[in-house]
Amino acid sequence: xxATLLILCALGSLCVAFAGLYAVARRMDNxxxxxxxxxxxxxxxxxxxxxxxxxxxxxxxLIAAMVTLWSLxxxxxxxxxxxxxxxxxxxxxxxxRRDWATNFTTRMFGFFQMxxxxxxxxxxxxxxxxxxxxxxxxxxxxxxxxxxLVAITGEALADRQLAAFKRDPARKGRVCDTGxxxxxxxxxxxxxxxxWVAYFVFALASPGGWIAVIGPASILYLxxxxxxxxxxxxxxxxxxxxxxxxxxxxxxAFVPWFPRKPRA
Length: 264
Prior knowledge:
The protein has helices spanning 3-28, 33-52, 57-85, 91-99, 104-122, 124-131, 139-167, 187-203, 214-225, 229-240, 242-250. The chain is mostly helical. The protein has two domains: 1-134, no CATH class; 137-264, no CATH class. α2 packs parallel to α5, α6 (124-131) runs parallel beside α8 (187-203) and α7 (139-167) runs antiparallel to α8. It is globular and about 55 Å long.
């Protein structure tokens, strides 16, 4: 199957799937479930490319396995978090309800469709790797796989540390500043971005692989400027107040680094 046909099939299927998901979210009155579907969709996309792409079978299998394992871990983590708090909706979507109050349902439907499109756009490294017919793994692909392993381990550790902090009744209302969270206010986001860097490095071994830079570049922009750090920190400031402001003063926002001494 050609690259164009693979992309068109993937995009059409995901747009239909996310339209159906929108109907479910509207019925549940909880639009946070789109985060779960977005995460799982990447695994399905990578498997689709691996099954129907013309590239070297072992390479297709490896990239599909990497993406699927990451997709299942992140999607399941979000599923437990989102559905565990249902019917209370994630604060980010509560804010969107306020921001889009005049035509919320229309804009949210568009938002769901944008998520479908973003999966295909960000899935470019999986497509390029699945098209590559060259036998054998390139050193860049090995390096990408090693970086992926480091990144997914770091992300899982950060999520586990935050979950353990929240389960401790003695820490209720406090800011998590232990483990990886001592060195970054968002270590989960940092390692999530590093996973996309790993996919980019992996894709560099394939023809046109440089195009895959759109993955880490887009994720970095979203995390730093749009739905990642800005919205998360707004919510944290609303719920934690001065305690979170002190945390901001002493702790790196993204890249893990040694804490600074807060101003007197």
